[in-house]
Amino acid sequence: MSTVAPTMRHVRGFDVARPLSIGMLVFMMLPLVFLPLASIFIFGTSNGLDKFWAALMAPEAVFALKLSMATSFWATVFNVIFGLFAAYVLSRYNFWGRNALIVTISLPTAIPTAVAGFALLLLWGPYGTLGRLLAPHGIQVMFTAGAIILANIFVTFPLAFGVIKPVFDTMSRSLEEASATIGATRWQTFWHVTLPSLRGAIVSGALLTFARAVGEFGSTILVSGNLAGKTQTAPLYIFAKFNEGQIEAANAIAIVLALFSFLIFSVLFFARDWLDVD
Amino acid sequence: MAKAKEQLVQDPPAAESTNLPPAAASVVGLSKHFGKTSVLENITFDVAEGEVLVLLGASGSGKTTILRIIAGLEQPLKGRVILHGKDVTDLPARERGVGVIFQSYALFPKMTVEKNVGYGLRIRKRRRKEIRETVKELLSLVQLEEHRKKYPSQLSGGQQQRVAIARTLAYKPEVLLFDEPFGALDTQTRSHLRREIRALLKKVRVPAIFITHDQEEALELGDRVALVNQGHIEQIGTPYEIYTHPATEYVATFLGAANILEATVRNDVLEVGSSQIPATLDRSKFRDGDCVKIVFRPEDVSLCRSDLLRPGQIRISTASIEEIAFVGAYERIRLRLERGADECRTDETAYLLTTETPERAKAIIATRPKPEATATRLQVGERVVVSINSFTVLEPR
Fold first, then answer.
1. What is the three-state SS of B28-59?
2. How many CB pairs under 8 A join A and B?
3. Which residue, of A7, A64, A156, A176, has the greatest Cβ tally within 10 A?
């Protein structure tokens, strides 16, 4: 009771600053975040739930959602394994060019996604540096599900690494040394000692990567070819249906994606304590 | 005589085959450099079966590096590490079978106490039943049975320490290495755990090497203590030996407070100022006119109001009391030695210094146990006769 911040103004024991600042925060977020989100749900359900369900169950919509999940999944698997490996190498060994590598790994977040997609096209496309060599063998990388995975990997490259590396950096070397003196091989040490300490970082890194990959639009639209039922991911589906004037169809998928990211970030937020339990 | 000497000259592995008891762990001529600075120079010592050796030294003395080399976590530039007669210098840490108790305990945070203790056996692919029984046995040995399902972060520092010890004992290590094991604990837990570990080590009979910078800890824990200073061993011996007969000034001052006086060798006496102290000296090491240092502990100093000394007490000088401090179990008195006109021998008079107050040369420190302090109360400024009960003469460098 007696320990209140001395600068706060009190009116008969009522703290004015508190409700005022909270109210202000919510009010500012209203047009920026809450209302846009709410309008998806309001619009999507305004024509009745059966219409919403029909739009969602359209074969192309289902395919787009499935494709998004599958491509994001494989990109996540790759980036988590790669991020783990890269974080291990870059925090354990000090070598010339180490910082340059760290910067390069982190770069894809700063590159506009359209540029990323364009760059991939220039490399793997039919006239690209590598694509030109593969084309005569009948191998086409671009405009396939593989291209979407490549684009997802590129744009989410540093996410898992960025979460895992700090944990590696702060991990006490003596844990691994203790394991070695007890008689464990490097692999046993990694499996039993290092990896469990990284559990939280791996899960949150994977969720971040996955969430970001599912929502990827800019690079995907360039490399996928946007073929409905073949290479059209969920965000591309929304864009295509909107352009065709089928607002309900676009909206149904938008709701799913919005709910999905809400779910992922809830897990991230609430599961942290559980994942980091000592 | 010649025979015995011959045996000592032989190299250690061969010496083991003779009647010397085999050392559980020996380190022979270890040297190590970090860049251009030498951190260890020619470190050699043995640890006998069931013995506790303490490496005592200030931080940066190289004691931790010795331990890490024995454990296989660092490679020496020169020298060998021999465990139970087997040269392990080139083996990786995991094949050496040493148990290291780290200062930070290094318990695996995502494993329960039980899992931590059983880790060494699990990676050795022992049968589950065997693991369960060993873990149970060890947890009862370190009295942590009721905490077996807890995670390390739920335990106190002392409990974590005991888990760490149980974890290393599980795979029956050749030697236990303790790296400043009590560094992060409060004073009470420290002394409690110290006694506990000492008893435990006597029970399991695994040879142990302790590292510490705390002289009290070293004296209490060690069967022998090796004092490490700037990468070399200053002296190695039983706690009694190194405390009462320090070989060097560094040893004398590192092991608690020490008063040091300079004296001149004359025949069979040491001259300190105008006082003469009878001493039987090894004439091969000391010659007449040599300037030597004599060392005595504050508790070896006796203070009297009169010149009536008890037998065994050696009069040094008179002194005036500068400061009296009560520090619990005893009273600490700082004295300034006097140079009376009759005692003064111009510039040849004693040059005195103490470790506790190096800037105030010519002051010495005396301590008196509480009963004595209460029986004869002394006042600041009072003049007393200073005598000592025992002392050590340091060899001239």
1. EEEEEEECCEEEEEEEEEEEECCCEEEEECCC
2. 75
3. A156
